[in-house]
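Chapter review: from sequence to fold.
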Amino acid sequence: MQKLKDSKVGCRIGKVFVGALAYADDIVLVAPTPRAMRLLLQICENYGRELFIQFNATKSACMLVSKRINNGETFVAIL
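The token string follows.
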């Protein structure tokens, strides 16, 4: 978690800055752009290699939240 925090990649949720949330063996990565998400994923991948941890891609998901430019509606897609 420290390496993720040190990256300073994340989003503001209200007045709180969030880059990663963790509970037990679950983690949520929060990034403002696809490029920033790739950086967070790379940090996790390197960490896994160092400690011989394998992440289970079949139990992973990606969620995109965005404002639509034309009408201001919030768009949510789970990929």
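Two observations follow directly from the output. The chain has a mean pLDDT of 86. The chain has one domain: 2-78.
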